[in-house]
Design brief:
mainly alpha, Potassium Channel Kv1.1, Chain A, Serine Threonine Protein Phosphatase 5, Tetratricopeptide repeat, 3 domains, 3-stranded mixed sheet, 13 helices, 3 strands, 69% helix, 6% strand
């Protein structure tokens, strides 16, 4: 089982001198680190088919001056069952060596392809959302998990409503649950924000669902306190 150097050092330090709670917390962090490393290693070491040649991808937002994102069919086919199906059969993408990716920016496409090679990506909120949609569409589970963890861990009052709306639109349940928990715990603060007003005007049905969850939580709290 592999562990990153920083986790090894912290683990050794706390094992000898920390209180029991600190030790258990750090132990959990090390185990999570191991889990993430093993998932990354498994993703990168899957056997690659040798029967594919090179290919270029183009993003949908580059209609006038398309910029190609080069890749190898072997890598694409190995990482994504959807891309493999496109390339392994005599579809136009396989015959032409060109794949047009719709509804995605050039930066997201480039990050997506880079992740297929390296299992690494530097995320921000927008890129995480784009890549999450791509990972769902092309069935890249490792990237999907990575983006969902990022969006959940970076939830705050400023992005909770927009993140919830995005997750609800695409049915990403872990993000929906996490965002809804934060929202229902902060309704008084959120109700005075512009994002709340915009959501009320744009999608009152979604706001109604939030209030249903909020009132349900309030009722449960009252029952427990009674």
């Amino acid at each position: 089982m592999r562990t990153c150097i920083s986790c090894q050092l912290m683990y050794s330090k706390y094992q000898g001198s920390a209180c029991r709670q600190c030790y258990e917390d750090l132990k959990a962090k090390v185990e999570q680190c191991n889990e993430d490393l093993n998932a990354k290693l498994a993703f990168l070491t899957m056997p690659q088919p040798a029967s594919f040649s090179d290919v270029v991808l183009f993003a949908d937002d580059d209609e006038e001056y398309p910029v190609p994102v080069p890749a190898h069919k072997a890598v694409l086919a190995n990482r994504s069952p959807v891309l493999r199906a496109m390339l392994d059969n005599e579809m136009k993408e396989s015959l032409s060596g060109t794949i047009k990716i719709g509804d995605v920016s050039y930066n997201a496409l480039r990050a997506f392809v880079n992740f297929l090679y390296t299992a690494e990506v530097c995320l921000d909120q927008q890129l995480a959302c784009e890549l999450l949609v791509m990972s769902e569409k092309y069935q890249v589970q490792h990237l999907k998990d990575f983006c969902q963890k990022f969006l959940v861990s970076n939830l705050n009052l400023d992005n909770s409503l927009s993140t919830y709306t995005f997750a609800h639109q695409h049915n990403f349940k872990p993000i929906i649950d996490a965002a809804l928990t934060l929202i229902t715990a902060s309704m008084d603060q959120l109700a005075s924000r512009d994002e709340y007003t915009e959501l009320k005007e744009r999608d009152p049905g979604l706001l109604l669902e939030i209030y249903e969850a909020y009132f349900s939580k309030q009722a449960n709290t009252t029952i427990l306190q009674a």
